[in-house]
Amino acid sequence: MAASGSEAGKPEVTIASLGGAGYGKTTTVRALARYLALQAGTETEEAEVIAGGNVRRFVYETARRRYIHLDCPGEGVGDLLKSWPLDGALLVVDVRDDIDGHVAEHLAAASAAGVPRFVVLLNLWNDLGNESLDLRRRAHENVHYLMRINGYGEDRFTVTYGSALEALEIEAECNYTAEDLVRELEQ
Ligand SMILES: Nc1nc2c(ncn2[C@@H]2O[C@H](COP(=O)(O)OP(=O)(O)OP(=O)(O)O)[C@@H](O)[C@H]2O)c(=O)[nH]1
Ligand SMILES: [Mg+2]
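A: This is the predicted complex of the input protein with magnesium ion.
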């Protein structure tokens, strides 16, 4: 994501969590905030409730940047996206689901609002056993398809794989899901 603002000397990046209801959006942003706070040896900042209670605004920092991360609900995202200029979005997908209408709706709204880039987390990837290869393949293909039909070429999104719940619960040193997400957000 490219930074569009700056605060306290650090470039500031504003992103939103998108994805279907219950896909793990809130778990993912909480995991990111906790992971970066643990790494920096600081406390996790309390999220602020905004937009009439629909959105929670998390703030976290890497060494290079400050992130404002808006945690959106699964529904009614179109109007919210119109109100905020975003530097990018984090799309959270439950690999067990058929990538329902919400994701298609969110991507169309994001594209219309001019959201420039996406980082995608294929969530619950780690929770599936080897017998679920078809499920994983289908989720991967569906995401690429939906991105493409909404005008997001391969240069405008990256896909990571992991578990938001695991990322929220394990120690920072072996938190591969959070590590991958931060690396992609920092690009
Ligand atoms: N097993 C497992 N459960 C997960 C994972 N990520 C999230 N969950 C669980 O899924 C449920 C929904 O997670 P949330 O983060 O609240 O999902 P959300 O997308 O924010 O939901 P809404 O805001 O209601 O749309 C919670 O019970 C989480 O603990 C994961 O990687 N593995
Ligand atoms: Mg949520």
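Strands lie at 5-7, 10-18, 48-50, 55-61, 66-71, 88-94, 118-123, 157-162. Residues 5-185 form a domain with the Rossmann fold fold (CATH 3.40.50.300).
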